[in-house]
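Board notes (copied after class):
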Amino acid sequence: MEVIRVRAGGSPAAIGRRYEQLFTEAIERLHTPVEIQWNVTLIGPITEITAYAKDRKPLVETIASATAQYIMEIHEKELIRSLIADDYGYDEADELTAIEAYCWHNPDPASEQESDLGARKRLGLIEDEVTQYLEQHQLLHIEGFIRFRLRRYIEHLREIVEYAIDEYTAEKQYEEFISLLKYFVYIQEAKIPVAHLIHKGAHEFILLNEKMEPIETKQLDQFVVEMIDKEINYEDMIVSTLITVSPQNVYIHTRNPEMQVIKTIKQIFEERATVCTTCPRCIPLLGDYKRHDHYYR
């Protein structure tokens, strides 16, 4: 009879129930024709699960699969938080929450969505490490194994955290930049009453005045130029031009109101910006729209 023992910190009842479920799920998932027996005992503060089977290979596969799932369920979030706080110094609660959300490729801290592909990859990394270890050992201490053996998995988590911090930092910089532009729009006086921004598609925009005539723009205001990255892209140019002409009201005519540059203009000009997807002024330039009239503030 082959024997493997798994030790973990925590309640014997809770760990025993969860491992029983994980063993059953692993056997079904692996299609392993194996009969496994196990018992749960308490050794000081440590819970030990002793599993028995006639053949070692299916026993190792089942324990590796169950343990990988257990590690991700019980330890992964804490490992992520430790990397964010200890390795990168983001230890404020709001920062931790925001960066954690980006770790799961989701900028909304209230949601816990993530791709199944990423979870399967991490699960596979743990399973491989546990399988290799159990081919040579009969005792697996989960907390010690995480600390000293799961190098590839931990390195993968570190890559996830680095990506999340990059995304978080970029978002913070974007928010600060938008706030600066909003302030600049707020303090400067309006130079023209109305500007119509016609979005003809893709990156093609036309800027018209209240008479629907092209607006002549001089060289961009130096203050605006200094605020914008040296590698000016089309979005920066549109925003900069609007700030330079300083209209009292901006009407954005588009068939794609969810485009990022349009969202940015709405953020900067706030109540001074109105978005329409069809109106008498823009139909001749953009053509008919299939839906009813829509206006956005």
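Comment from the instructor: Residues 189-296 form one domain. The chain has two domains: 2-179, 189-296.
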